[in-house]
Amino acid sequence: MAITNPFIESKLKSPEEVALALPRHVTLGCSGFTPAGYPKIIPPAFAKRIESEKKEGKDFSINLYSGASTGEELDGALARSGALKLRIPYQSNSYLRNLINEGSVDFIDMHLSHVVKYIEHGILPSIDVAIVEAVDVTADGKIYLTTSSGMSATYLLNAKEIYIELTDIHPAELKGYHDIYLLPHHSRTLPINIVSPEDRIGTDYIQVNPDKIKGIVRSSVPDSASEFKAPDSDCIAIANHVLSFIQDEISKGRIPKDYLPFQNGVGNIANAVLASMAKNDDFHEIQMYTEVVQDSVFDLIDAGKLKFASTSALTFSKLGLKRFHQNISQWKSKFIIRPQEISNHPEVIRRMGLIAMNTALEADIYGNVNSTHVMGSSMMNGIGGSGDFTRNSHLSIFMTPSLAKNGDISAIVPFVSHTDHNEHSTMVIVTEQGLADLRGCPPKKRAELIISKCAHPMYRSKLLEYFEKAKELSKGKHTPHYLEDSLSWHIRFLKTGSMK
Amino acid sequence: MAITNPFIESKLKSPEEVALALPRHVTLGCSGFTPAGYPKIIPPAFAKRIESEKKEGKDFSINLYSGASTGEELDGALARSGALKLRIPYQSNSYLRNLINEGSVDFIDMHLSHVVKYIEHGILPSIDVAIVEAVDVTADGKIYLTTSSGMSATYLLNAKEIYIELTDIHPAELKGYHDIYLLPHHSRTLPINIVSPEDRIGTDYIQVNPDKIKGIVRSSVPDSASEFKAPDSDCIAIANHVLSFIQDEISKGRIPKDYLPFQNGVGNIANAVLASMAKNDDFHEIQMYTEVVQDSVFDLIDAGKLKFASTSALTFSKLGLKRFHQNISQWKSKFIIRPQEISNHPEVIRRMGLIAMNTALEADIYGNVNSTHVMGSSMMNGIGGSGDFTRNSHLSIFMTPSLAKNGDISAIVPFVSHTDHNEHSTMVIVTEQGLADLRGCPPKKRAELIISKCAHPMYRSKLLEYFEKAKELSKGKHTPHYLEDSLSWHIRFLKTGSMK
Hints:
- The structure is a homodimer.
- The mean pLDDT of chain A is 96.
- Chain A has two domains: 6-219, 3-Layer(aba) Sandwich (Glutaconate Coenzyme A-transferase), CATH 3.40.1080.10; 233-496, Acetyl-CoA hydrolase/transferase C-terminal domain (Glutaconate Coenzyme A-transferase), CATH 3.40.1080.
- In chain A, helix 5 links the parallel strand 3 and strand 4 (106-107).
- The first copy, chain A, is α/β, with parallel strands linked by helices.
- The first copy, chain A, is globular and about 75 Å long.
- The first copy, chain A, has 18 helices and 24 strands.
- In chain A, strands 1, 2, 3, 4, 5, 6, 7, 8 and 9 form a nine-stranded mixed sheet that branches. In chain A, strands 10-14-19-23-24 form a five-stranded mixed sheet. In chain A, strands 11-12-13 form a three-stranded parallel sheet.
- The interface between A and B is large, with 84 and 84 residues.
- Chains A, B: Residues 10-217 form the Acetyl-CoA hydrolase/transferase N-terminal domain.
- Chains A, B: This is Acetyl-CoA hydrolase.
- Chains A, B: Residues 320-466 form the Acetyl-CoA hydrolase/transferase C-terminal domain.
- Chains A, B: Keywords: Hydrolase.
């Protein structure tokens, strides 16, 4: 059902009209977080205009800012236009990723909790135009977002001009899911009054000056989250190791019986953990304080176990979205969507004592974790919120299958080729092989645990060989390394296609 | 003037009596933070007992926990006894450092804000005996600490037995400087009500069960902080770069005119920054929310510029201590001493928007910083609070002279041999050569800035050579590396004694 009012009617434009009105050299601040709630109509129209005007010799340059990753209609379309110059703060589009790794698009890989300040303080090029997906807009400038909050509020408030994609894909009852709260960034702040995931401290809309709204485009395109895949045996094995560990922590009194809230990253492993919790009789009344909720949350709901989930995005598959729409009124008591500065805020994360579960690309024998750079140089997606959560959570768990590329890559290496989370902050590493609890262990003990519990048997003796050589030849015996060989696994992979 | 009361009199023991009462296999939780307020009488007596009983074939093992570094009478004496097995969470004693790097003492290098939880949750071996320096003890078990807070409250509350070194080195007016506040660690917490460095939320004493106090030893030994050295030209150059940068940030509206509070690390560079602020007419009403205050604070006081300093330790030289004693009543309005969990708490650090200034051992061309591991393997002191502050501050600045070992080491390298603070969290790098503001820069831009602004001219062309080679040969061009050469500078140093 298309929402309307005289203000909306007065602002309606075609996507082509908006595309034509956009500056050729522009910094765009777009809605969207892990492809939820991003604009899907204006960017492809803009890309089309660029394509045609480039033939006439006109040049374009776009800086694209979002909350986190978006979909093909935004990241893909603008990347393919050839006009994209700078992208922040996270992406996961394969075409764009290739441009970044060829060196033709600049990418700034940021802690998601830092982005608001960098915008407010003018550290990054300032926002010319905000394009956000909304479910409603009022004549006095109240904008109601769709399935993500991300950076939208900040981009709307800082943009010179605003364009809205007014979608009819969601029922009007989506209004009320958001809790928009912005921190002052030019003065001291007071405590953020969130002590539990369900606490509301803001408004369910963003108030802008309505004069800045230069056009509204109607949209019926859904978010493009990928279909939910059943977890494979590695993911299930990892999930089981994690759950046993958490049960053990509860029995030791380190996690209260009513649980600390969970943060879990995106992807199959994170989904498997929630699916396993849903099936496990020892888990109940689950709370989440996280940045993305995916279809796996339905397992918890079906099992009657979801107490509450605070997130910055509801990233559902087509089937998941249908289910969400069917229950949209009732589930307002189950979900809050927050700006990423609040979902990822160190203050709230430390206070709530989150259990943070994120995916590693690789980890080394001492517990340093690489989440971003393949072979030290090629960007995968970005650090996203993993640094915000890892550094300040009660428990920081990193999960990865022990092998990648059919066994040609070991996720456990002598020395990570890039460090996103270091030995001081990584508390637990889990692969399908097992779990290494690194807390309270000096470096050499950590190496023994990681090699014996987490490494794949195919690489275990090779890792032990490195560790023994390092202990023998390293000048310093605190964290022994034999630097000649430290990066040799990565070098071998780059040369031969295998770490073997 | 020796404080006394009937309870104290009833508990008085000689250091030798206490030493004899200590278990042979013991976990000690001691007061002390950056050598301030640590026990100085009992540990040497214990070391003497160990020495003599070892000759009789008896074996000893000690786990030593403190707030941060301590003095020779504690770290040195116990390390020399040969009985030290485990040390947490920070140290700076040269004899102990050697044992750690030989591999004969285990050291767990921890974020200082994590230590309380690791103790409360029994992740580390539990505390048998607490030994703390105090200025007063009451019959009902109120303990008044001396010049540091650190971990003392947690160790006192968790120890089975308590010994006190009651010092007469400080006037009784030291009572009132502390603000002891402990967070619950087995349940949810509420906001910490500190919004400004001077906010008091706790008590000025630690309440223990007086039955646990097994002995009190009188002491007249002062803290052993080293004498204050006048900053050299490199330190002054670094300080001037930092101040110009901060002035520029103020003019851009990124730092409020009444300033955000400063955190500054230990050492000559940090001292030079404060000394330069004292002399610079643009700086006034300085606030600090930090973990250590050193003699350099007197420069601010003399210039009438110190508004307030919150710290976990007052680490003064002999002359500095004399001055502190002369003004001890009056300066209660200038200083608070807090437990390290609060001085280093992410919630308070992010809320106040600290300007964090810490020392790097080395930084690489992309902005990753090594604070702890010489050539990747040998422990210097530890990460201390640098991770707590860097990750959550408003501005994270790393400072280092561009050269070490008479030019044989370049502090700017192609690839750090250990990462304590990564490219996502390091905002500014400064050497005597200049300052690189890395915020909002993609990786290759960061490399250009760091090489041109921070590297010593002696190494600049070599770094550029690496960077050019990496850009040419790296498969991924986002963060180009040529892994064959990445650690070659460190390997060369280990083989030849020089990176040249």
